[in-house]
Specification:
Blueprint lengths: L7 E2 L5 E2 L1 E5 L25 H13 L4 E5 L9 H8 L5 E6 L8 H7 L3 E5 L5 H8 L4 H13 L6 E6 L8 H10 L3 E6 L6 H8 L4 H9 L1 E6 L6 E5 L4 E5 L5 H5 L3 E4 L4 E3 L9 E2 L1 H5 L4 H13 L8
Parallel strand pairs: 3-4, 3-12, 4-5, 5-6, 6-7, 7-8, 8-11
Antiparallel strand pairs: 1-2, 9-10, 10-11, 12-13, 13-14
Helix pairs in contact: 1-2, 2-3
Length: 309
């Protein structure tokens, strides 16, 4: 029986309406805090056709939004083909990128069907940016930001993982820069998936007081469906969104996302790698559409909130 565009729900009643697809674990940056989308020891990469096949099945379940990520998605020479193949299946294709390679590709990606981008931009200081990313690419990323805006890959979001002793002192500069660039600033809580407790103690910066400050400076506050993230519309015209997942049961309670690893497995939760479901391996052995649909059903059945009260 074919899918009917009816959203799948996990046993906690959470619908799944978006898919986050990791295209590669390769990256031209070496950010020390990168969680690599929760992947460990990936085995190769999917082809554009395999990615399309997985997205087509997801679309059959009513999943309408695809976020492409990595690693760095623009490291793939076939990234335009990937976007062009999957765009007809869904309402929106977006991408998370470090932006360093975006300036030369923004226009053709927009033409292929990419609609918006999140760009990692963890410091407004070239020197600190170099320390964080391991690359002297500050100006390249800034060109990528402006290319995204010029080519209407909007709203552009600037992703900042806020870390104690690293960039937490730059929040005011970040807010000013994002406002001037006509971008949304997205402050992300540090998640020590790879570094464990040592990383938590050293780098975690509590964003709750930041949210209180933002609320006091806002004319309005919007609450998004995904994770109940709050978006603060500031009096001076800037927009700041806060992503605060750690020990946050509300964040997990309103998660509507399923993930695909770079080697083609369905991943129910960023924080776990012990409950993955095979997908691309089914395609490679000639599995039927029904078998792929069953893989999606199984992955959704394995979803459960990581943080709970």
């Amino acid at each position: 029986m074919a899918c009917t565009n009816t959203l799948l729900h996990d046993r906690f009643g959470r619908p799944v309406n978006s898919l986050r697809v990791s295209l590669t674990q390769r990256c031209n940056f070496s950010c020390f805090f990168c969680h690599r989308e929760g992947e460990t020891k990936p085995n190769g990469e999917m082809t554009p056709r395999e990615i399309e096949d997985i997205v087509a099945v997801a679309s059959g379940f009513g999943i309408s939004k695809i976020k492409l990520t990595g690693g760095e998605p623009l490291m793939r020479a076939d990234i335009v083909e990937v976007v062009r193949r999957i765009a007809p299946h869904v309402d929106e294709v977006s991408m998370t990128t470090n932006g360093s390679l975006l300036a030369g590709k923004a226009a053709v990606l927009r033409g292929a069907g990419l609609r918006r981008v999140n760009i990692s931009f963890h410091s407004t200081s070239p020197e600190n940016f170099h320390k964080i990313t391991g690359r002297d690419a500050f100006s390249d990323v800034k060109r990528g930001i402006y290319a995204a805006i010029e080519n209407d890959l909007c709203p552009v979001k600037l992703n900042v993982v806020v870390m104690k002793g690293v960039n937490a002192g730059e929040l005011e500069q970040m807010m000013e820069y994002s406002k001037d660039a006509n971008a949304i600033l997205q402050l992300i809580e540090y998640q020590p998936i790879q570094r464990g407790a040592e990383g938590w103690n050293r780098y975690h910066y509590d964003l709750r007081p930041v949210e209180e400050m933002l609320r006091a400076r806002s004319t309005s506050v919007e609450e998004r469906e995904m994770h109940r993230r709050r978006q603060y519309h500031l009096e001076d015209g800037g927009i700041v969104e806060v992503v605060r997942p750690m020990h946050n049961s509300e964040f997990c309670s309103f998660c509507t996302r399923l993930r695909v690893t770079s080697d083609g497995r369905l991943k129910p939760c960023l924080m776990r790698d012990d409950n993955l479901v095979e997908a691309v391996s089914l395609i490679r052995r000639g599995a039927s559409r029904r078998e792929l649909e069953d893989a999606f059903r199984e992955a959704v059945s394995r979803r459960e909130p990581f943080w709970r009260d």
